[in-house]
Amino acid sequence: MSLTKENLLTLKPGKSLEDSIVNAYVELLKIRENNLWHPNPSHAVLKPTAKRFFFAFSWWMVIAARFCYDLKIPPSELTGAAKDDRDNFIETYQKQFIGPNLQDCDFAFFPTCHCNHWILFVVDIKKAKVLLIDPLRNGDDYSGKLIYPTQYYLMEKFLPFMLHKLDDKQFSQRYMRIKEVVERPKQEGGVDCGVFVCKYMDAICNGISLKTAYWTPDKDVITFRYRIANELRNGEARLIPEWGIRQKNLGL
């Protein structure tokens, strides 16, 4: 995945990240997590029981939205060319160029940009549960289902249908419940949503609890921008060591 100077300049403080930056960082996380896991215990960096992750690029939802022209129609009831397109999508986009297929993972990340605002869906594939992490919005007057109806449909109905079609014995459930995460580091600047989504994925993979994490907008978030730029330049996402995770969770 190639990046231009103009793409990289969106990592400067005060700029909104372009899709290409978020997707390139997703690729780095995918490579890192795949390298940490190996089915042969003698070659594994982590224990062979470590969690396996599926990373979707932002265009996953853009393409899948073609099957959501009517949110009242279940994915199973598509017919004709729409059905063929749906089945081709499922076959193509259940795969990762690097790492395990969707149905073989424990968790999946689906970052998406809606109206110039980045949000993240985190899916517990085995338990059929979904978390929506919105860096900006939450509260009693907030309903993700009203703001992101198509994205909700894809997570609630299309994704479980996709998993069921791939393996109907392992995935019998046709619906996933979505919980909106309230306790997490929250964006304060108007243009930092893409940075937060990148860091949410990085933190979750590293075992850092978002509930206890705190990121200051004038220091941590700016540091994250430069760290993402450095990792993209080096072609490698940094792994936070276990002692660093403990310090983060303790607020040290």
What attributes characterize this protein structure?
about 250 residues; alpha/beta; Adenoviral Proteinase, Chain; five-stranded mixed beta sheet; 9 helices; about 10% strand; disordered C terminus; protease
Structural commentary:
This protein has one domain (5-250): Adenoviral Proteinase, Chain A (Adenoviral Proteinase, Chain). 40% of the residues lie in helices and 11% in strands. It contains nine helices and five strands. It has a five-stranded mixed β-sheet with strand order 1-2-3-4-5, with helices on both faces. A hairpin with a 2-residue loop joins strand 2 and strand 3. The two termini are 36 Å apart.
End-to-end Cα distance: 36 Å
N-to-C series of helices and strands:
HHEHHEEEHHEHHH
Q: Uncertain segments of ≥5 residues (pLDDT<50)?
A: 242-252
Estimate nothing, just give the exact number of structural domains: 1
Helical residue percent band: 40-55%
**What's the arrangement of strands in the largest beta sheet?**
1-2-3-4-5
Count of helices?
A: 9
Please tell me the overall pLDDT: 85
Please state the CA-atom Rg, rounded to the nearest Å: 18 Å
CATH topology: Adenoviral Proteinase, Chain
Give the total of beta strands: 5
Q: What structural category arises from helix and sheet content?
A: alpha/beta
Topology:
Layout lengths: L4 H5 L9 H18 L16 E3 L3 H6 L15 H14 L13 E8 L2 E8 L4 E5 L10 H4 L1 H18 L10 E4 L12 H13 L14 H15 L7 H9 L2
Helix pairs in contact: 2-7
